## 1
Amino acid sequence: MEEFPSKVTLQSLVTVSPLAVSLNGTKANLLSYDQLTVENLLFGMMLPSGNDAAQMLGIFFGEIILTSDRWKNAQRVSAATQFPNIYN
């Protein structure tokens, strides 16, 4: 299980998920398993073609939320599928 930082900064590293890379639509052409900073992904989201960067940040922060104290006793689930269901 991946350990998430207790504090996220703009310089925190995010490993790009194959799920974000496989996203349909316009992309910033991220590569699976590359490591980018949160700041670089935010810049990627500002591009007209940054859907994959936005998806990756959603996965990253969703997994942090789902593995926080609120979810400590819950079964680990995929943030990509459960995060929208929980917060909508």
## 2
Amino acid sequence: MVRTIRLQAYSRGRVVEVYVPSYTPMKKGDPIVQIDPEPFEIIVRQKQAALAAAIIGNTSPGIRQALEQFRAERRDTVLASPDPSRA
């Protein structure tokens, strides 16, 4: 039995490669298209830069509190790990 279905992307973006021609039988999990990762990578780099600037500037009390909480959680994780090199 052959079924034809409509697809909708979970993420928006420009398709840079199509792996499967139309009406080709597929299995669950088969990749269909490759979406250009560059816009997503740019957003990640912008967020990382903003975080670094906030840490360096350390001006907002909310940022300071979040940073201290992260450091405490990280310290607890390392201390609780049987092999600190893997934490």
